Amino acid sequence: MAFMTCNFYSESLGVSASMNVIVPQATRSQIGLDSQQYGGKHPTLFLLHGLSDDHSIWMRRTSIERYASQLGIAVVMPAVNRSFYADMAYGPKYWEFISEELPALARSFFPLASERELNYVAGLSMGGYGAMKLALTHPERFAAAASLSGAVDIVTRATTFPADFQLIYGDVTTVKGGSNDLFHLANQLVASEKKAPMLYQCCGTEDFLYEDNLRFRDYCRALELPLTYEEEPGEHEWGYWDLKIQRVLNWLPLPERV
């Protein structure tokens, strides 16, 4: 695998931005790493960080490079600060950045596949919310999305992060039923009759977001969305996420290798 830190200018944000990228490399003599590779451009996982993290966190807290190497997929890990993956009322347009500009730039810099069937998104906490938001808003772009301990009910979380949410949304009372509300987006997807991506959701039973995850799970099930849900004892911490990202990678609907 090749690992790169990429610094570039973002038109959406009006400032320089960063992402870490893992790209498959076919090797014969590397010791201790089982390196696989598909033919053509690489299947890609967009892997999103949480509220207090940045683009470096998945490499620092997990063995994501080793896990991805075994499957032969690329991993794109962008930085979005404390934006909740939204076009902020009092800040930059992070939703435009993550949903439009970043994928196009990443594919212009690296040999990444653009087909829906070869694109996936996942994240933890705020990033789990962002992953679900991307997949529910643009089901035509992603074959699968995974949320690890996701902040999936932002209407409830408005009281947890009042300063952040005021900067992000302005009037937080407008969030419910809008384009940032995952429950609303799930409804809209079903009503559109578009093909839904595969969804994966997990949360530790001792996590402060556990009840939020149960509500979102039950809502998706009522809508008959293709959701895989898992829970077990666990808190909001990296030991849990390191284990579950391995589960997510093995769950992804990867194509047959050529």
Your description of this structure?
The chain is α/β, with parallel strands linked by helices. It has one domain: 3-Layer(aba) Sandwich (Rossmann fold), CATH 3.40.50. The chain is built from nine helices and eight strands. An eight-stranded mixed β-sheet has the order 1-2-4-3-5-6-7-8, sandwiched between helices. Helix 2 runs parallel beside helix 9 and helix 4 packs parallel to helix 7.
DSSP E strands, number = 8
Oligomer: single chain
The CATH topology annotation reads as Rossmann fold
Write out the CATH superfamily name: Alpha/Beta hydrolase fold, catalytic domain
Indicate the radius of gyration in whole angstroms: 17 Å
Jot down its keywords.
alpha/beta; Rossmann fold; eight-stranded mixed beta sheet; 8 strands
Question: How are the elements arranged and paired?
Answer:
Elements: E1 2-10, E2 15-23, E3 44-48, H1 57-61, H2 64-71, E4 74-78, H3 94-109, E5 119-124, H4 126-137, E6 144-148, H5 154-157, H6 162-169, H7 182-192, E7 198-204, H8 210-222, E8 227-232, H9 238-251
Parallel strand pairs: 3-4, 3-5, 5-6, 6-7, 7-8
Antiparallel strand pairs: 1-2, 2-4
Helix pairs in contact: 2-9, 4-7
What's the quick description here?
The protein is an alpha/beta fold and 258 residues long.
